[in-house]
Write a structure and sequence with these properties.
heterodimer, A: mainly alpha, globular, B: 146 residues, Alpha-Beta Plaits, 2 domains
Chain lengths: 329, 146
């Protein structure tokens, strides 16, 4: 796509990424409801369109046509800014995600760093939403989300550092390029460090906690905090939070498949392309949903204990072992 | 220290077992029915309101003895019969069931000497007036015979 004038390239990528975020949210909501239904031996949505596939579109239209009510005494600027900010971070992260050999909006050599730098702004959006809506439940939920995100950022970044030590680059496209077939994927222990499967597990758990997914969804614990930080949001404010959340889930799973599962590379080394990234990502998204409908929500203490007592020591072990193995071999 | 690792191992194992259980449930067939389009087949011993059993020869087996009417603790059965000129037996001319009073005890069905009564499998019973639940069982029986 390099022969196109820059402006068209930018427009095409902006349009494509926005469409992907929207379609991804619609598809993920539908998938989540179907998975939930079948795990509970129900059917899930089935009335709107074949297999209920247009259900999320109908829900989206409903959300868009609702009035956005700003609660009295809420901070009008923060209240309005928060959903937009969570959406902006979700969209901006897509800029460096490589969908194919040449299908990446900006081929940055610090792409990985950019993803974490921007994705962690999302927690600020949750805090703003919770604080700005002048609701005690929303504030409690926002503080929980912040402590959770701080706790899980640490082990996640440590494992990512050990992966970067093996790859020697932060350019996501180069990292994918190094994993040309199944045997070269960085999830396998013979590719640099014997603790790479553990690193993948830690990364995946942290990605789930970072995106506030169950069983770590303390931020929106319905049984205690009404709906958490988006208690006071209706209409498209709520819709944007949802779009953003599913966008972050997609990015987390896409990043896991880029770092550990070969991104757009085919397992057998033939016909690489965007479809492989989508297949791997949605398989991981499915696992995230499967986990959500299997485990009950943890407590806040259980969540912080898991991070500080288990994930941080293990990620440090991964780091040390990786460094030692890189030095020795 | 060994307790720490054992706890992590046991925790991970139980998580995997849990995932296995939900996956098994996910691939099993669904058990819910889409109600207006699909309906549950009622069990043989389901007790709906009572119904006259249709009979091929005479329409119904009722001999108008009035046992059901007398046995009913709620008094919801009203029987009408007449003896036509020259006939030996009484003939049933009206069987009215006031279902608003019925407690589904089944004494009428038990006491019927000719097994002319039975429980129906009707459960779609919703109405706006009390009169909607007063059934003319003789008419229902005629309709079912046709």
């Amino acid at each position: 796509m390099s022969e196109m004038p820059e402006i068209f390239r930018v427009l095409a990528f902006v349009g494509g990424i926005m469409a992907l975020v929207g379609l991804n949210a619609a598809f993920s909501v539908w998938l989540e409801r179907k998975v939930a239904g079948h795990i509970q031996r129900r059917i899930g949505p089935k009335e709107v369109g074949p297999f209920g596939i247009i259900q999320s579109l109908a829900d989206g239209i409903k959300l868009m046509s609702k009035q956005l009510v700003v609660p009295a005494k809420a901070d009008p600027i923060l209240y309005r800014l928060a959903p937009a900010l969570t959406m902006i971070t979700a969209v901006m992260v897509f800029v460096v995600i490589p969908f194919g050999p040449a299908l990446v909006a900006v081929d940055l050599n610090i792409g990985l760093l950019l993803v974490f730098a921007i994705a962690s702004v999302n927690v600020l959006a949750l805090l703003m939403g919770g604080w700005g809506s002048n609701n005690k439940y929303a504030v409690i939920s926002a503080t929980r989300a912040v402590s959770q995100n701080v706790a899980y950022e640490v082990p996640m970044l440590i494992t990512v550092v050990s992966v970067v030590m093996i790859t020697g680059t932060m350019n996501l496209n180069t990292i994918v390029g190094q994993q040309q077939n199944l045997l070269q994927w960085y999830i396998f222990p013979w590719n640099g460090s014997i603790l790479l499967p553990v690193a993948f597990l830690i990364f995946f758990v942290c990605a789930m906690a970072e995106t506030n997914r169950a069983p770590f969804d303390l931020g929106e614990a319905e049984s205690e905090l009404v709906a958490g930080f988006h208690t006071e949001y209706g209409g498209m404010g709520f819709g944007l939070f949802f779009l953003g959340e599913y966008g972050h889930v997609f990015v987390g799973c896409a990043l896991a498949s880029i770092l550990f599962l070969g991104g757009w590379q085919c397992p057998l080394g033939i016909l690489p392309g965007v479809h492989w990234l989508l297949i791997k990502t949605y398989l991981l998204v499915f696992v995230v949903m499967w986990i959500r409908w299997t485990y009950p929500r943890t407590t806040l203490y259980g969540l912080l204990n898991l991070s500080w007592k288990v994930l941080v020591p293990f990620s440090l072990a991964v780091l040390v072992v990786t460094a030692a193995m890189l030095k020795v071999f | 220290m060994s307790g720490y690792f054992k706890e992590i191992y046991d925790g991970c194992k139980s998580l995997v077992v849990g995932l296995g259980i939900t996956f098994k449930y996910m691939i099993r067939p669904v058990v819910t029915l889409q109600y207006p389009r699909q309906a549950v087949k009622m069990a043989p011993r389901y007790r709906g309101h009572i119904d006259l059993v249709p009979d091929a020869e005479s329409g119904n087996k009722c001999i108008a003895c009035g046992m059901c009417q007398r046995n009913c603790p709620s008094g919801c059965i009203t029987l009408k019969s007449e003896k036509p000129e020259g006939a030996k037996k009484k003939v049933l001319t009206g069987y009215r069931l006031d279902f608003t009073k019925c407690s589904l005890c089944g004494l009428c069905v038990e006491s019927c000497p000719t097994d002319a009564l039975d429980f129906s499998k009707e459960y779609n019973l919703a109405g706006f007036k009390a009169e909607d639940f007063v059934f003319d069982l003789l008419k229902r029986c005629e309709e079912r015979r046709r």
